[in-house]
């Protein structure tokens, strides 16, 4: 017998009595008077930065400044300028020195400062992780209170990959001292468009 | 109101003053107290060591001594918890069931059944409260720092009725003292370290006494305090509630 | 050498300042957890939901595992099943051989630790680079992790400094965590970039969608998985959850319980391999189906490996992870490990005062301390207890069953304690080693009561 069947048979032989699936009542969950403010407070408490801008064009000048400082920048947002079409071909070796990446994300979560980024938004799965500075862009109206509302709004199975990202990479593995910038981005900025 | 008094074996043998205080306190509060003379032990030392199979004799003896009372009260959360969870009589499950429902730890009996709201007691000392785990987490005598629930404490509620007393908690309000039954000898090093750490936190509050609802925790802490020659003494909560300085 | 918990922890505690430091460091994590959970009015409700989802899942495991397998395959993930650790390791090795893989990076996976995958591959001449900072530190030191979330929590920054000086040529004596972390970042960047294979664990596998979620703070799982041409994710079968919406409950409780964060930095949802990538998933039993059949212990399989029970455990904090001599230490380890090897791990359920704090912090409401008590009964039943203890317990039981004998022994005992106190002050009396004996009164309470009645 294959191990698959052996395992499934053993589980079937030992299956506990039926327990009903609980109903998760969203009205029992915390709400925030000002989700934006809560989101900003949390992101800042985990080492990230939140910038409120009236329109996405306000970010363009920053990109220009970075480019003229001859930093390695990748923009994945067509509203901000040209997006190279070879992005998903770039390897880790090619991206090793990536300074900043700009990515349009789906939504932000007020309770924990996380931002949902899908594969089609990041273009290349490595980009949000291998860069030094991660810049994510969301609309203010897309800040939800908790993870419950977040999962209501997204469909995790339509694309091959997606991630909630909350602030910059961090570790506390040495004596519980918090160090920002373990393997992923050392800085995370969330632009929020009013 | 007739109350059967259960005095756990080690209190009977080593801390009779705790039994006396419990009895006097209950009598002061108007209870008719009966002490069944054939009682011994709840069986916990065997059961917690993995030998619950050896507790039949204890169960039988306990049921023989304590059947038929409306209320059974003991000055020990740990022994009460053990009986509530494990007392059994295979031939006569009703009897064990009736006992479990009549059984109360002293402080919960005072706050929930007699509903004491004043006490004629004085204890003009600085007292550190130790939350004994089985009473607190097992019998829900006080809210627990792990949980997100409203704060309360039955022992503290009673101690606040005592004149002249100054109460304090250690920094970690409900960490275990490390007694743990036979754990105190089989895991001697960890047990003593846990006790020492509780004491250090109580010492920071400059107290005269450590009190608790279980003499087992106190016996362990007393052993460590006496070894280091500390002036801090231990005292069961029943002794404070029954005191008149 | 005695390698049981009591002896190993005595050795640990012999360095008292370091024990204090270890205790306080982990208590700090417990306090962060309290702050994060007490800030949510629905916390206790969340625990209840998480517990019920897990109970429901355990009672429908077959259906959810087969649904998961079907969906995952449709997503292009290659699914493997391993009955035990050996088979798990063989599967991983066969994928390595088939793809002619040389360079392997691994992010944290307690399952691969449980299966001793690194040792297995090392014997085959393959090097696995652990990429979680804590795991890399203990790997350099050839030590096992001492904590499932904070693998190097037993080490001080000076220890890490010495280790990195030796292996990464960092400045001697520089023990600044920022500096040491940066050194590890540079060192592991090069490992990521050249990796052919990334091995990761799985925090949650979703039956409904055939995908899985991996949570890290460092980003190491992503750096590996998105770089390597092959990704193998390894999971115990209990990692399955029914629906995507259930992730909301679990991601809300996991990091809050583990470190007091509202969520980990990265919660990565994998559903399909990259176009140029192979993605494998190994579903492992290794004793889990046996545990499922133990009515008293089956709900230990609800565990999401947050380690909140470690951080709150007063025994763990004062004895260190290595004193548990198993991959998963702490209270949860003490109820999981007897299932794997009851004889070797017979001491672990006794390494607890049954204070109950573990059950209170558990975000999926496992009755950990009650299972510790129940394992003690099993272990005695199976005979894995010393004959001395057995004899003593039988004697005690006989005495307490006979009230007259109990009173007689009491009289003799107290008389001895009063008149020959030195008899008890021996090195064989473990109570007396660091504690004074209680004073024995002349009369028992019963004696007083009878006099009082007169």
TrEMBL record, chain A:
Classification via Pfam families: LUD_dom
The LUD domain extends over 102-193
Family annotation (Gene3D superfamilies) = NagB/RpiA/CoA transferase-like
Q: Which InterPro entries match?
A: FTHF_cligase-like_sf, LUD_dom, NagB/RpiA_transferase-like
Q: Which domain of life is it from?
A: Bacteria
Q: Cross-referenced SUPFAM superfamilies, in alphabetical order?
A: NagB/RpiA/CoA transferase-like (SSF100950)
The name this protein carries in UniProt is: Lactate utilization protein B/C
Taxonomic lineage of the native organism: Bacteria, Pseudomonadati, Bacteroidota, Flavobacteriia, Flavobacteriales
From TrEMBL, chain B:
Give start-end of the signal peptide: none
Coiled-coil stretches, from where to where? none
**InterPro entries recorded:** Cys_rich_dom
**Molecular functions (GO terms):** oxidoreductase activity
GO CC terms? cytosol
The residues covered by the Cysteine-rich domain are: 3-84, 127-221
The protein, known as: (Fe-S)-binding protein
UniProtKB/TrEMBL annotation, chain C:
The record, for InterPro entries, names: 4Fe4S_Fe-S-bd, FTHF_cligase-like_sf, Helical_ferredxn, LUD_dom, LutB/LldF, LutB_C, NagB/RpiA_transferase-like
Q: Does the keyword DNA damage apply?
A: no
Which part of the chain is the 4Fe-4S ferredoxin-type domain? 293-323
- List this protein's GO terms for biological process: lactate metabolic process
Keywords attached to this Swiss-Prot or TrEMBL record, sorted alphabetically, are:
4Fe-4S, Electron transport, Iron, Iron-sulfur, Metal-binding, Repeat, Transport
Any one GO MF annotation of this record:
4 iron, 4 sulfur cluster binding
Q: What is this protein called?
A: Iron-sulfur cluster-binding protein
Q: Which organism was this protein described from?
A: Flavobacterium hydrocarbonoxydans
């Amino acid at each position: 017998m294959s191990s698959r069947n052996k395992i499934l048979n053993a589980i079937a032989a030992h299956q506990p009595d039926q327990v009903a699936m609980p109903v998760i009542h969203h009205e029992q969950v915390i709400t925030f008077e000002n989700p934006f403010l809560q989101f900003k407070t949390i992101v800042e408490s985990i080492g990230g930065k939140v910038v409120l801008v009236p329109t996405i064009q306000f970010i363009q000048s920053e990109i220009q400044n970075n480019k003229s400082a001859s930093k390695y920048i990748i923009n994945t947002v067509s509203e901000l300028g040209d997006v190279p079409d070879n992005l998903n071909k770039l390897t880790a070796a090619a991206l090793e020195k990536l300074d900043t990446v700009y990515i349009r994300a789906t939504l932000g979560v007020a309770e924990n400062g996380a931002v949902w980024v899908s594969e089609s938004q990041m273009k290349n799965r490595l980009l949000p992780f291998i860069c030094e500075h991660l810049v994510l862009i969301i609309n203010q109206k897309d800040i939800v209170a908790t993870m419950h509302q977040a999962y209501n709004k997204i469909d995790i199975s339509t694309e091959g990959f997606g991630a909630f990202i909350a602030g910059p990479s961090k570790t506390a593995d040495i004596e519980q001292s918090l160090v920002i910038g373990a393997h992923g981005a050392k800085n995370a900025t969330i632009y929020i468009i009013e | 109101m007739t109350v059967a008094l259960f005095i756990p074996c080690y209190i009977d043998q080593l801390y009779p003053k705790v039994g006396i205080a419990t009895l006097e306190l209950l009598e002061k509060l108007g209870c008719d107290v009966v002490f069944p003379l054939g009682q011994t032990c709840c069986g916990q030392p065997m059961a917690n060591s993995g030998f619950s199979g050896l507790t039949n004799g204890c169960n039988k003896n306990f049921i023989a001594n304590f059947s038929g009372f409306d209320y059974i009260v003991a000055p020990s959360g740990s022994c009460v918890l053990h009986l509530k969870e494990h007392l059994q009589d295979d031939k006569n499950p009703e009897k064990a069931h009736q006992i479990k429902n009549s059984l109360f730890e002293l402080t919960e009996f005072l706050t929930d059944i007699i509903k004491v709201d004043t006490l004629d007691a004085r204890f003009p000392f600085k007292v550190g409260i130790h939350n004994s785990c089985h009473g607190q987490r097992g019998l829900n005598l006080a809210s627990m720092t792990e949980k997100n629930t409203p704060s309360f404490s039955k022992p503290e509620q009673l101690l606040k009725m005592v004149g002249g007393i100054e109460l304090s908690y250690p920094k970690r309000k409900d960490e275990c003292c490390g007694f743990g039954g036979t754990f105190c000898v089989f895991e001697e090093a960890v047990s003593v370290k846990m006790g020492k750490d509780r004491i250090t936190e109580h010492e920071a509050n400059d107290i005269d006494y450590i009190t608790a609802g279980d003499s087992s925790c106190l016996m362990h802490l007393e052993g460590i305090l006496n070894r280091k020659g500390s002036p801090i003494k231990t005292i069961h909560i029943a002794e404070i509630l029954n005191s008149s300085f | 050498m005695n390698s049981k918990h009591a002896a190993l922890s005595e050795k640990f505690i012999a360095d008292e300042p370091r024990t204090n430091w270890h205790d306080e460091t982990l208590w700090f994590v417990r306090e962060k957890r309290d702050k994060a959970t007490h800030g949510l009015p629905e916390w206790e409700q969340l625990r209840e939901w998480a517990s019920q989802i897990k109970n429901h899942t355990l009672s429908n495991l077959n259906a959810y595992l087969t649904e998961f397998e079907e969906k995952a395959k449709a997503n292009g993930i290659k699914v493997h099943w391993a009955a035990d650790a050996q088979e798990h390791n063989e599967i991983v090795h066969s994928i390595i051989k088939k793809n002619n893989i040389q360079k392997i990076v691994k992010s944290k996976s307690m399952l691969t630790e449980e299966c001793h995958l690194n040792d297995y591959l090392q014997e085959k001449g393959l090097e696995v680079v652990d990429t979680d900072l804590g795991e890399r530190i203990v790997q350099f030191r050839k030590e096992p992790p001492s904590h499932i979330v904070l693998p190097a929590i037993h080490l001080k920054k000076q220890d890490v400094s010495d280790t990195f000086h030796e292996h990464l040529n960092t400045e001697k004596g520089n023990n600044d965590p920022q500096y040491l972390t940066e050194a590890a970042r540079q060192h592991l960047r090069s490992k990521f970039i050249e990796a052919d294979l990334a091995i990761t664990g799985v925090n949650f596998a979703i039956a409904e969608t055939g995908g899985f979620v991996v949570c890290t703070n460092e980003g190491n799982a992503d750096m590996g998985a998105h770089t390597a041409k092959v990704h193998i994710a390894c999971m115990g079968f209990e990692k399955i959850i029914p629906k995507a919406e259930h992730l909301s409950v679990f991601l809300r409780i996991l990091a809050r319980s583990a470190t007091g964060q509202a969520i980990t930095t990265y919660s990565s949802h994998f559903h399909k391999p990259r176009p140029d990538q192979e993605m494998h998933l190994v579903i492992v039993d290794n004793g889990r189906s046996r545990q499922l059949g133990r009515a008293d212990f089956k709900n230990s399989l609800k565990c999401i490996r947050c380690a909140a029970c470690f951080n709150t455990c007063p025994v763990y904090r004062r004895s260190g992870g290595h004193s548990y001599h198993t991959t998963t230490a702490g209270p949860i380890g003490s109820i999981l490990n007897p299932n794997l090897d009851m004889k070797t791990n017979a001491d672990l359920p006794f390494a607890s005062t049954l204070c109950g704090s573990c059950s209170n912090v558990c975000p999926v409401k496992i009755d950990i301390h009650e299972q510790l008590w129940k394992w003690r009964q099993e272990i005695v039943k199976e005979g894995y207890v010393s004959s001395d203890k057995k004899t003593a317990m039988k004697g005690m039981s006989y005495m307490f069953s006979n009230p007259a004998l109990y009173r007689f022994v009491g009289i003799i005992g107290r008389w001895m304690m009063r008149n020959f106190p030195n008899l008890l002050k021996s090195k064989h009396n473990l109570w007396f080693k660091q504690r004074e004996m209680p004073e024995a009164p002349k009369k028992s309470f019963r004696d007083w009561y009878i006099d009082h009645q007169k």
